Fold each of these.
Amino acid sequence: MDHERKLMMCLVLTVICSSVLGEEWTADVVKSIEALVGSCVVLPCTVSHPGSSLPTSRLRGIWHRKDNWDTFFYHDDSTKILDSFKGRTRLLGKLGQNNCTLEIVEVKDHDNGPFCFRIELVRQDTNQPTKEKFSFVEKCADVIMKHDKPEVKLGPIKTAIQGKPYTLTCSVVHTCPSHRPQIKWSRGNKDDEITEGHKFIHSGVWEAESILSFVPEEKDDESELTCTATFNGGIKSEAKFTLNVKRKENYNHIIIPTVAVAATAVIFGLFCVLMVKKYKKRIQELQGQDGSMWNRMSRLSRRLRPGASGPTRTDQRSIWSRFSRRPQRNEHDLSPNNANSCGGQKINKPRIPSPKSQQKSNNYKQDLDDNDDYMNTADLNIYGNM
């Protein structure tokens, strides 16, 4: 009876194991991925099965070589791992959560794979493996060794404006999300704001970025900004950028000269007004003097002004010519006998004084009037004597 019960239990376990570890178990592993030599790389892997979820303690994940299933890159028993990979590999996820991702650090030139995943069902009490094993050799990962440093990108490159917020992004792609690159800026002002981000691109490729936000000043013009990305293993890559800061638009170059000219004109105008007020009384006194130089210049300007009404050509003759005028003689006066006599009488001509012997007067108009009176008297005397 006991023998029959044991047989029935074995049959039940066989059916359960066959349903769990059948051909429907699948794994999805990245086919090809780049790895920076000296840094780290992560091989994404997911596993699934048709039954209910199993605890991690019932599952064992192994990474091995494709052509030799007993050559292990990773095993939970570290003594079974190849010497060249000891201490450099580990599973990142939990098999109970269908995560079989493998991490490799300190990548070397020979770490090119291919890397294949295998899952084993173990006994829960002893943790010993059973005969149920499944390897996914048709989906192994190839690792491409990369010696060149990844390129660090800056953007968007644009001209900054003084006093306005400016944003610059520094980014770099990598294949080791468990140890993502650390991005640092050469600018470290306390008012600057730095935002870090990390996003998945595709097939094990990730992008780390750092966003720098600040308000540029005039002193920042022509300054150099440097973004440095440090990868796992101490490998660094950087990008530089010369910042151009445009000064804030203003109209000082127009306003200042205009204000200066206007102020100069106002000052000059006030100066002229003050000078006129100061010397106004003196000018009126000079204008009120009849014989002043001001009046003489005024009369002279009226005489010399073209088209102005003034004395005729005859009237413009000198005073001396007026003094020298003599009446025309008759024909009988030309005879020698009548030269100095009239009816046997001797005529005494009045002596006309020379202008040089007369004292000059300051009043030109009065002089003319006096001379005219004198000439009239002289003429009367001459004709009276005749």
Note: The chain has a mean pLDDT of 77.
Amino acid sequence: MRKSHGDNENQTTWLILVGFGELQHLGFLPFTLFLAIYVVTVGGNSLIVLAVASRRTLHTPMYLFLCHFSLLEIGYTSNIMPQLLQSFLEGGDTISLASCLVQFYVFASLAAAECLMLSAMSYDRYLAICHPLHYPALMSTWSCSCLATGAWLSGFFFSAFTLALAAPLSLCPGNRVIDHYFCDFAPVVGLFCGEVWIMWGAGVSISGCLTLVPFALIVTSYIFILRTVLRIPSGHGRQKAFSTCSSHLSVVGVFYGTLVVVYVAPTDHMPPLLRKAFSVLYTVLTPMVNPIIYSLKNQEVKRALQRLWRQLV
């Protein structure tokens, strides 16, 4: 395990991330697997951004939202994966308290921004299908940029409240080991003593609002979309209208499905390795799957990727 380099540092500011120490006997296999996932995730989401940027016909709100979502995914996985890969090589990792809090803040902010972005994307589909004649006026490039920027800023702004509540708290004596592979909310709160219930309550309330309110808006949007689609007389028309939403619906299902598994399903009595494996679904696999879904289910994105590939080769 890597040792702390700062001899002059107060040792209480250094924490130990256990990571996947249980897999150490597998040698380089876990490192190779997670490295491949990270490369596919960053590469796939980067290709989505490049494909949309390179084709003028995709310079519409729907695909601009997709670019923002892909950028969120790149930042989200890059906040966790490099340190996880290093822990596979070194059998664990040390991290300063400040770095741990920053990682938690970035993680929480980007996760909240993703929820809000998915909500904005569903609102865009609602306007396009339910109000097609007014869509260009209601969802202009300016409106799209404001919604996307609002999702980014809101995620970072509201997550800062939870982090600020840790400032007056002190670390529990001798509590320096985090049996996880990144600084998630529960492990971070568990480091502190004192009135941690305030931080816990605020964190749960804020994350609940930033998760459930966007989900409620997504469900409401798709109720109206479904009602409008069912009123279309021709089967081909219904299929064409709903096909524009299929990729977004798939991403919403994967995103919130893994969210429920990790944070709602009872995992308190599970072995630590199994709890961490569930977290991998949310933090590692979901960002990799999303560009695959869009490239397979969205014909415009698929054609743009094929055109971009021909230009590169």
Note: The beta strands are 14-17, 93-96, 170-171, 177-178, 192-193.
